[in-house]
Design brief:
Layout lengths: L4 E7 L8 E6 L3 E4 L29 E3 L5 H4 L2 H7 L4 E4 L1 H13 L6 E3 L4 E3 L2 E8 L6 E8 L4 E5 L17 H6 L3
Parallel strand pairs: 3-4, 4-5, 5-6
Antiparallel strand pairs: 1-2, 2-3, 7-8, 8-9, 9-10
Bound molecules: zinc ion.
Length: about 180
């Protein structure tokens, strides 16, 4: 099959909430984040919205979480139901929040720590530490061996070189990909 790297937002673009992005290589389909959209005042009797997963007809091999805010992890149980075979990766802080959420719903699913490069076919995602209003947030560098390309995907972030509780954003690692 032809080499490809497709990136399609399913939620979170043009709205605050229900963050979800489909990333496709020629071999695998993965999702980034699975958030909810909080209700507006004209939502009558609706608790929250999630992206329309009926649009995702592909087999999903991995779900990668960038950080632990509800608009990025709030719909995780719906995704586990829809894609039971998908491996889930999350930064440690988000991993704990997701595990609490799954405990509460009596669901069991292994959440793997998001530390290192994850490959999917000729494509790969490298987590990059960024600052945000919640600890342990990752930006994702999406690369493809055969397409000689690098896409920096960051959901929410700030540049805080003097954070009192964690390391500053890893600008050095970002630079490596654009030399
Ligand atoms: Zn956030």
């Amino acid at each position: 099959m032809k080499d490809k790297l497709n990136i399609t937002p399913l939620g979170g673009v043009g709205q605050i909430g229900s963050n979800c992005t489909l990333v496709q290589s020629e071999d695998e389909n993965i999702l980034i984040d699975c958030g909810i959209l909080f209700p507006y005042e004209d939502f009558f009797d609706i608790n929250y919205l999630i992206p329309d997963l009926r649009e995702v007809e592909h087999k999903i091999s991995k779900i990668i979480i960038t950080h632990g805010h509800e608009d990025h992890i709030g719909a995780i149980h719906h995704y586990i139901e829809k894609f039971p075979e998908a491996e889930i990766y999350a930064p440690l802080f988000a991993k704990k929040l997701i595990e609490n959420k799954l405990d509460y719903k009596s669901l069991s699913k292994k959440i793997k720590p998001l530390n290192n490069k994850i490959e999917f076919g000729a494509a790969a995602i490298t987590p990059i530490h960024v600052n945000h209003s919640i600890p342990d947030t990752k930006g994702l560098m999406i690369t493809h061996d055969k397409l000689d390309t690098a896409v920096l995907f960051i959901s929410d972030f700030k540049v805080d070189l003097n954070s009192p509780y964690e390391a500053p954003i890893n600008l050095d690692l970002i630079k490596v990909f654009f030399k």
